[in-house]
Each structure stands twice: as C-alpha cells, then as structure tokens.
Amino acid sequence: MALRKLVAGNWKMNGDRAALAELDAIAAAAVDHGGVDVAVCPPFTLIAPAADRAPGLPIGAQDCHQNAKGAHTGCISAAMLKEAGARLTIVGHSERRADQHETDAEVRAKAEAAIGAGLTAIVCVGETEAQRDAGQALAIVEGQLDGSVPPAGTGDTLVIAYEPVWAIGTGRTPSVADVAEMHAAIRAKLAALLGEEGAKVRILYGGSVKPDNAVELLGVADVDGALVGGASLTAAQFVPIIAAAASLG
Ligand code: PEP
Fold this sequence. Notes:
39% helix, binds phosphoenolpyruvate, alpha/beta, eight-stranded parallel sheet, single chain, TIM Barrel
C-alpha cells in the first residue's frame, strides 16, 4: 500500500526568529506539492512564532516529557507543546538516546504522552556504525521498535523514522538495498506489533537526505518520506526534497 509521503524537517538546536523567514517558501512549497505532507520541527522557543507565521504548515517539537506536569525542571509536556501550536513531535532521536540516555521505555512513554495530548509522534530508531558492522542492524532496530512503539499507535498518530546513527550529519547514506531491507523489516515488525494498523504507519528514512539523493532514497519501497536535519534549515535545500517526494507520488 502506497502511503502519502511526509517530509519533516528537524532543525535541532539551530535557528532564531530571523530563520523563520525560511518557512514562507517552505509553506508555499507545501501548498504547491499538495500530494505530500510537510512539517518543520524547530527548537521549542520557535514553535509558537513558527505556527503563527505559517498557520498552514504543521509545526512540531523535537522532544516532550512523558509526564503531563510536575517537578521536571527544564522539561516540557506534550500538552504545553500542543498549546504552543505544535501538531507533532519527534521522540527518541538518536542524539537524545545518546546525550540524555533515553531508553526505549522512556521513548514509548513520551510517544504515548504525545499521542494522548493530540500530537503525532515520530519515533526514531537506528543502529550505530559498530552495530551495522557487526551484522546487528536489523536486530537492534527491531528491538528498539519492540520497546518504543506505543501499542495504541495508528497511521494517524504514529510515524517511525529509521535513522542510521552513522548517516546523521555525515553526508553518508546506506545503500538502496540496505534501506529497502531495513524498511521491509520495520514494516513487518509494525504488522506484528500493531496488526492491520501497522500497514498504515509511515516509515521515514533519515540521515543525510539532500536534494541530490532524495529521489533515490524516497523511491525505495516502504520509504514513506524523510526526516531531514541539516538540509531542512533553508528553503533552498528543503524545497527540492519536498518536490522530490511529490514527484514520486
Ligand atoms: C536528523 O538528525 O534527524 C537528520 C536526519 O539529520 P541530517 O539530515 O542532518 O543527517
């Protein structure tokens, strides 16, 4: 089943109010290419102004806390993000799994909190280079899915992003065959975890997606879109990726 593609930008800890000007052309491209979904996830401080500036463009966060409120200094709840104008949030990005030591169980709790607050959760999974070299990539990702996927996730509320850690920000990408093998394995795992709904959950590829490799990567079977880091920071780089997704239907 061909799913509607989603191209989501992850600005990470980049951007300021001046950078929101990039959203004008990104929002226009989203309208021009109405056959694909587009979203941008800026830092927390830019969510509200981004949502105000581009009301038609889904704005997301890059994390949320698993609890609704309480004594968690420096954290933010899914309901707070929703109130700020977010429609989705990334959870379990490999940078957070590494830097903040987030476990699969925490990632699942965050995804459940996001969905409970009315946000779509993009759950990230992916192996390190050492794990791939050791022939463990499929087992690692399947294990992350076992631990991180919320059982109540649906095609409307849950997205998976496969992001090999060694491909993020490096300019390196897996072969088309390796992407196809991994996405097929993720699809099978989603069917095992979610039943029929698993066929409706979009699986994004992320890791050094650029305008010049987007058609190749987005054209792989079971690649239902892209999670884009560096190339989402400017419309000049992000819009051609949106166009590439649209060209593939
Ligand atoms: C990311 O961190 O989600 C990502 C895909 O980054 P980049 O596109 O810069 O590799």
